[in-house]
Amino acid sequence: MLYDVTASLLIIVASMFTLATIIALYRAPDALTRANLMGNTTSVALPLILIASLINDIGQGDFSVGNLIRVVLTIAGLLVILAIGSFIMGRSLYETEE
């Protein structure tokens, strides 16, 4: 029961981050600002969804060390790839706006 509530709260928080990002993307004035706004969803909401999935597995008794390692590596990969991708996208957008 506690695991389900915790996982549900994490999903709700991730959904709120996603909704806030969508609203901000709609109101953003230019492409560079839109590219910077995607960082909230990708670096906060996606790891929260992965952690909620892991907590749900623990609550159902399906926890395994393999799943834990997979979630940790996925979150680490997300953070590294997103940082590099945001940098490259920002540079290319900045160069095209001049």
Can you tag this structure with a few keywords?
single chain, 98 residues, mainly alpha, 3 helices, elongated
Task: Give a verbal description of the structure.
- This protein has 98 residues and is mostly helical.
- It has one domain.
- 91% of the residues lie in helices and 0% in strands.
- The protein is built from 3 helices and no strands.
- The chain has helices at residues 2-27, 31-60, 65-97.
- Helix 2 (31-60) runs antiparallel to helix 3 (65-97).
- The longest helix is centred in the C-terminal third of the chain and has 33 residues, at 65-97.
- It is elongated, with a radius of gyration of 16 Å.
- The relative contact order is 0.15.
- The model has no long low-confidence stretch (mean pLDDT 88).
